[in-house]
Amino acid sequence: MNTKVLLAALAGGVAAFLLGWLVYGILLADTMKSLSVLVEGAEKNPPELWAIAVSNILWALFYAMVFTRWAGISTLKAGAMAGLWMSALIALSFDLGLFAMYNMWTMGGVVLGRFCRPVMGVVVGGVVGWVLGTGKG
After folding, report:
1. How many CB atoms lie within 10 A of CB 68?
2. Nearest to 114 by CA among 134, 131, 133, 99
């Protein structure tokens, strides 16, 4: 793992953190609450922001490692497209599995999340791809 991969992960993690705050924390906060099954005491209030930040950096690091090791992605456009597909498929698989086994979300929450996560994947993947491609002649 080189410095560029780490910088791409950091930049993508910051983008994911800010976008998650905007989308889930402000724009869709009430909607997501109405589509979730609330369990008394299950939600931390306030949430652990450091853990959210680390989670977002790890998500972006995953992209950066896949992009550099297996896909050769180093542009904003290619990163955005890869981010779209990777996030859509991973999130849908994960959320459908949780929906099948736990009373955490309604199907409406799963469906709404499948529109939000790919949009975030486009932005994070684009940022990671762009950072990976900086400095190339």
Report:
1. 18
2. 99
Q: What is the pTM of this model?
A: 0.87
d(CA 61, CA 105): 28
Return the structure tokens found at 89: 């498929």
Query: Residue 26's CB: how many other CB atoms inside 10 A?
Result: 9
pLDDT tens digits, the chain, 137 residues: what are they?
799 999 999 999 999 999 999 998 899 888 877 777 767 777 788 889 999 999 999 999 999 999 999 999 999 999 999 999 999 999 888 888 888 887 777 777 777 777 888 999 999 999 999 999 997 75
Query: Is residue 79 exposed (0-12), middle (13-18) or buried (19+ Cβ within 10 Å)?
Result: buried
Question: Which residues are within 8 A (CB) of 92 and not within 5 positions of it... i.e. 6 or more apart?
Answer: 114
Strand partners for 105 = 36
Give dist(CA 6, CA 65) in Å, integer.
Answer: 9
Nearest to 35 by CA among 129, 97, 106: 106
